[in-house]
Amino acid sequence: MGGYSSEYDISVKSGHTVYESLNRELYRPYRIIIRREGWVLLNDQGEEFPVNRHDFSVTVDGTHLLFDCVFNAIHGSPGEDGLLQAYLDLLDIPYTSCGFYQAALTFNKRDLLSVLKPRGIHCAQSYQLDKGAEIRPDDIFARVGLPCFVKANRAGSSFGVTLVKKPEQLEAAIEAAFKEDEEILIETALKGTEVSVGVLRYNGDIRVLPITEIIPEGDFFDYQAKYEGKSREITPARIEASLQKKVEDTARFIYETLKMKGFSRSEFILVDQTPYFLEMNTIPGLTAASILPEQARVAGIPLPSLFDSAIEAALKDKSEH
User: Fold this and answer.
1) Could you please report the per-residue DSSP string of 274-308?
2) Residue from 98, 125, 123, 100 nearest 112 by CA
3) From 87, 110, 114, 156, which residue has the greatest number of CB atoms within 10 Å?
4) What is the CATH number of domain 126-188?
């Protein structure tokens, strides 16, 4: 848990939820906090012990610990962009999330859209901009129109996202996005119902969880809506059966096409009976306020079972390779 991004605090909350939920009759869990200044094991007394990155081991009170599996609860870098997955692959340590390639691809919104669009997935019209490049407002608005979203390309939890309604708001929105990433994505603001749907491997099978309808108090599903209760989240979503099936089929198709593992949560805007894909989170929030645990609960999957299944799948994958 932890990480190097603005999502550090949220990740720590997710990690604590997993730690507290795991069945102690099956597992002996340890909390590893990853920070730029160092990786540490945190014990129940609040003491910290450094992680040896050579083999991802920790010595605690004279006992040398090596781990059977890593439960990846890091939102953002390095847990959601592929860096941690590649490191663990090199050490041959199983982990609960998707592989490094899938993580890197899905974390990069622009690259993910470029892979999914040719496969028939509907996406909003978009414009790409890199730091240092000339900003041409007329070209941007000609392509995406108003209102539009300005997004950091590689960030989560709606950090670096602004809804631009007037041309004079564009410059500040671009500046805010560049504080999170050197690449940004500007997209048409689609008008429709926003939904979120979790897809995961559960007891060996790919399973689509009940869809959540998102009704933010503000203009969109921003940080406050996600983590400070500034939204209504209705699970299952109030959509007709035919549209529900389209969303479920699309989310499953994306999960299978990308050869995903572990948890995922995809966001869509429903426009005229068509799901438009926004993004995929490969390490979705696991806190009490998070969407995927609520979807699992509605599906009859308690948190200990949800997390247990992820660990079992990771260990099974390791034994088969």
Assistant:
1) EEEEEEEESS---STT-HHHHHHHHTT--HHHHHH
2) 123
3) 156
4) 3.30.1490.20
